[in-house]
Amino acid sequence: MSTPMEQLYQQVILDQSRARIGNTDLLRDSAQAPHGSSHQVNPTCGDEIELETELLDDDHLAVRWTGDGCSISMASASVLSELAAENSVAEMLQIESAFHELMHSRGTMEADEGILGDAAAFTGVSKFPARIKCALLSWMAFKDALNQAQAAREEKHHA
Amino acid sequence: MFARLRGDFPILDARVGQSPLSYLDSGATSQKPQCVIDTFIEYFQQRNAAVHRGAHSLAVDATEAFENGRIAVAELVGGAPEQVCWTKNATEALNIVAMGIDRASRGFGGQAAERFVLGPEDSIVVTEMEHHANLVPWQQLAASTGAQLRWLPVTETGELDLSSLETIVDDSTKVLAFTHVSNVLGTINPVERLVARAREVGAYVVLDACQSVPHMPVDFTDLDVDFAAFSAHKALGPTGLGVLWGRTELLDALPPVLTGGSMITTVTMEGAQFMPAPQRFEAGTQPVAEVAAFATAIGYLAEVGLEQIFDHERELAGILLDGIAEIPGIRVLGTAENRIGTVAFDVDGVHAHDVGQYLDGQGVAVRVGHHCAQPLHRRFGVTASTRASTYLYNNAEDCQRFLTALAEVRPFFRVQ
Hints:
CATH class of the largest domain in chain B: Alpha Beta
Strand content of chain B: 15-25%
CATH topology of chain A: Sufe protein. Chain: A
Radius of gyration of chain B: 22 Å
Oligomer: heterodimer
CATH superfamily of the largest domain in chain B: Type I PLP-dependent aspartate aminotransferase-like (Major domain)
Strand order of the largest sheet of chain B: 4-10-9-8-7-5-6
Largest sheet of chain B: 7 strands, mixed
CATH class of chain A: Alpha Beta
Helix content of chain A: 40-55%
Strand order of the largest sheet of chain A: 1-2-3
Number of strands of chain B: 17
Distance between the termini of chain B: 42 Å
Strand content of chain A: 15-25%
Radius of gyration of chain A: 15 Å
Shape of chain B: globular
Order of helices and strands of chain A: HHEEEHHHH
């Protein structure tokens, strides 16, 4: 039986918090494809992330982010970036929704690894109300940035 | 004595998961002894009524409890009971001063308030180690009046850098607002030196005493400050209650911000006359049970002795600092000699949130984050830190349990 600390800080989380996949400078207006970015702050601890999404084509997107924060928030951004490279836009929206639901489950849900992949490792976080925001920070930025990128693409179509 | 009084705090018997609780977050809020909890309950069981109105016995009794609280505060921090104004918290107390000066600058308060008028040729001085509560209201006042906001920097050791005191606090300075003790670094600031400089240039001194009053003997009259603020909940009292202390002639001249019932002498349809302090700043129904409970808390502190509390916490601070020095990869923020038992630090390679989470898993409660002092953290090159802060009920065992858990943090997170 693992301790609550070990359930919270799964090996995947510790590894991803150091790997920081996607942690690279944003391209901003030098990005070729429609893109958007979002800046999110957790005012209680100063965790901060700015995340950019670029819609490469109808199905694929690139994610880049800069930021600093606790292992949960950094691992979450890293896993998000990894998933974005492997999944379509529609799949990412499905993952985002499943992850959001998991984080608000207060530890009562069984994570669907088929949908969530490595993001399932965050199941333990939902038992720690003070840390849910950490896990969701990059996903909030992702959702906002993706909306902007999609709006930019619409504009391009109509232009 | 300190070993015995721990039993007066029922919450300290609580367990966190499998572990006993070591509460090292009194800088955020203190725990309450049973006698304070009892006073709170007894007030509603036996004395509850509206104060300062009504002639019935209960109202007289409630008013007495309310005014006795003022006397207790005056005995604790010096001055007369009329110099003690109740507020919602210390933040409100500081805002009452800053916003009162703002109102004076816009013509409120008549001739008496002219002494407070600020304009673009004036300056307000704060320090880089202020809690946001003693920074943001002054930023607002500067923005509103056009006055310049200046600040005294902080040295690497976490002390005020006073090498340019004479140029930063100059003839243009009308307000010098600073904290007595840093809520992050634990540093005790040299109030006498700052007050002396303020007097030379004719600036008003506003002292944030939130972290000093609960932990050491403080006398605002001896310190010769003009205004001071602190909260009850950090000094064994309840939440929802703060104190604005001031020199009587200044309080009576400062335009009130909150107006309405209980603070007026006569009201016509066209206007109103205000009462002198303290009622002037106490519009509306007051937190009477909280005041009664705080009076009990002050009695408790006096019985233990603030001199003794200070020495006890200095001993604990020594254990914390010596122990942390032996753990690799920990940088303490602020190493001032003259300090209380508040120690903030950065753990190399592990974010403060993760440090706090791990310590909580071992039953050790500390604060993580920027502790409402973002500029100070920026000064030390970090966005967040972990803070252990002691009080009279802590003992060496709390410190040891904290140190043992802290030593496990970097190995747990696999930081070499």
